Batch of 2 targets.
Target 1
Amino acid sequence: MAQDSLTVTDNRTNQTYTVPITKGAVRAMDFRQIKTGPEDFGLMTYDPAFLNTASCQSSITFIDGDRGILRYRGYPIEVLAEHCTFLEVAYLVLFGELPTEKELKNWVTEITYHTMLHETTKKFMEGFRHDAHPMAMLVSTVAALSTFYPEARDIQDPNNRLLQIKRLIGKMPSIAAMSYRHSLGFPYAYPDNDLSYPENFMNMLWRMVEPKYVATPALARALDILFILHADHEQNCSANAMRSVGSSHADPYLATAAAAAALSGPLHGGANEEVLKMLDEIGSQDNVPAYVKKVKEGHGKLMGFGHRIYKNYDPRAKIIKWTAERVFQVTGRNAKLDIALELERIALEDDYFIKRKLYPNVDFYSGIIYQAMGFKPEMFTVLFAIPRTVGWLAQWQEMLTDPEQKIARPRQVYTGHEVREFVPMEKRTPMAVSANSR
Ligand code: CMC
């Protein structure tokens, strides 16, 4: 018998089955043969929220959550953050190798070529209320790109796919900046293609009447590092949404909009905005112990803490802490940092957090930097979505070119009624539940 295998006995039938183990996993479909009789559908695996189910094989990002390791295509995140630009890392994430000087130059030119938005996007944006959440505007506008590029539906053509990938990476900062300026009532600023990716984004955000926007180099570099840290994170909620929607062969703009919608939730990318609200609510260092006590008693969560995969310090949070110091040298120290540091200190010494292995995640410190740079908290998740677009697109490509992948369609364990007699209207009784639970 092969060593890399699993033997199970079905106690209902006393039958024994052996299934192969490959790369530490068994195939759920190998269990379908386990039946009590010819009429039986076969055994399924039940895994709500995918706690222990791999939905794909991937060579993009590696995480060792117990040791706090994150690598893109084999390169440690710390090394990439120190030595690369975001577009260099985007190339790596998408194509698997770091670009040569010439490849990078071409890549930057190609992305820069796609920074402009169709002029009617302005009108579309103007339709949003002045207080619309920038993340909702971003999601809707990314979906609307599908109306400008109908050829994107041809997802089988690699060249066509690549064109849409470049467009999305080029246009995300432009859409993000537009949603930001819309919420402030400022006129939209056009891209300046002489500038680097982060500088151009800053230009579209903050240029007012000056003829040429000049970014503070330390802030542009900090933003670029933050983009690198957020570029991909394997099969998280939004990547899973991208793969799932993309598996129906929806076009990449619609799939990216779906992924961005998944990112917006407070348990995922929306947590960075929630962290700032939480620090505001705590108000001062002295109030931290009382706040932690409240969380331990089950009232809310420490936002920016905990992770499905990391049971150790999130390596991105470490880099962000270090980047924050550089930003504060320019902007002055954000007073919320002291509350955050105290919160981290108290939580990391507390049994509740130690036992559950809850550490600060990427969202814990990023908002403090963003705020120091002048962003409103509502923009924080939008800042996450710009670089994560690269990861979503890499995951999308990998899914489409994987011969094992099909339309994503989970099974369910049905818990409803057996077939019932139809009840005519006059014989129906009101439901004994409140309207809220319907
Ligand atoms: N504060 C207090 N308790 C927590 C927290 C937290 N932030 N996170 C988890 N727990 C507790 C949870 O109540 C549970 O306790 P018990 O065993 O007594 O029921 C235990 O820890 C395990 O938590 P879980 O909910 O089973 O963990 P999960 O893997 O399903 O959830 C998470 C992961 C990130 C959704 C969760 O930790 C959380 O809600 N954190 C706060 C939101 C946040 O910061 N999200 C950003 C995640 S990182 C960036 C990203 O993905 O975008």
Target 2
Amino acid sequence: MKEKQEKRVDSQERMKWWNEARFGMFIHWGLYSVLGRDCWVMHHERIPKEEYAELADKFCPPKEFTPELWVKLAKEAGMRYMVLTTRHHDGFCLFDSKVSDFTSVKTKAKRDFVAEYVNACRKFGMKIGFYYSLLDWRFPAYFKGPEKDPEGFEQMVEQAHSQVKELMTNYGKIDYLFYDGEWIPGVPFNRDLINQGESPEIAKLWRSKELNRIVRELQPHIVINNRSGLAEDVDTPERFAIPSDKDRAWESCMTIGDNWGYVDREPAIKSVVQLIQYLVICASGGGNFLLNIGPDPDGSIRPEFIAILQEIGKWLEKNGESIYGSERVNRGFACHMAGMWWAPLGSVTAKGNVVYIHVFHWPKDGRITITGIKNEVLKAKILATKKEVKVEKMGEGKISISGLLKEPPDPYDTVIALELDGKPEVFDYREMSL
Ligand code: GLC
């Protein structure tokens, strides 16, 4: 019992920054960026590993490029942490490794980009995340499977263990380990199920228990995601944002365009308001939003991405208190407040005694009606203008905010902060009559 309690305190402690952060930058960058056809190009186009390896001669960003560019942009966007692909499924490392020559240090670029990234994060006070793919397509044993080629498979597992240890040893304090690529051909795998818990067969093959024990020894404060076949700290829904029902930390990762890695053309870049909506949805469920960009092969970031991220940053400057450190909103509450599942107004986030109404659909008649809150509303304020607005009780569980401008004070999402007389409490919407 005692042991259990201690463990919980420990996890609360290491999740503290995580629960405050809410918004992070994901970066997919590696050899595949040179081809401009996303990070799965080696697999999709069945490029033999020898031919693929030649890309290393072309992966050589100019001297002037420094990951500070990424970190500064993340900072400007209001992001609180970053996750860089230290190694993707192609096996190419952006760090120095004793167990592989297929690295940016030992090929043309001759640079340890992970070290540069870590230094830049530290300089700008950004929490540091490492993405690491357990699988490596260059091993035929990966495709043959552990039964047909146990030795080859073990070599791949051994390489992963050694490299994760290198990453956890050589770069100082690391805040977040984002595993990926845990699936193994022929072994039952369902990421949705994994988001719900553990996947014992996969974990056994990667020897994940042993690995994560070592990781935690080396980095006692690290947060670990659920992609080593073990649940660990964080669930990781991908490309969708729906608040998790479970009482677990979660993070939705999302592409800004259609892809993770660099592509020559991005015809469907998400808009500022779409991305703010995702962020709000995550925050409303007490989760984080990890937004991915795939820099060009030379490390630069497309101007369209930069402009969007800067706009989100400006929005967060005014409205950040509704996002950072947000607490999970009761689902019924969110529904009531015109929340996540259908959205006459927008969505809701909350912290302490304050609920934040995110009005994406600003009404033109200057009045907003909100139903379902049991509490008394003490004060209402628009975050964008810092002005108080008039709030009236219209009956049990019904309030009205009036005297609003015709045009939304914020072009993307106007946030109205309602200060309540206590922690938000709601009526069950199914039991409410007209
Ligand atoms: C998937 C993809 C991988 C990508 C990751 C991001 O697992 O296989 O390419 O890096 O999602 O979460």
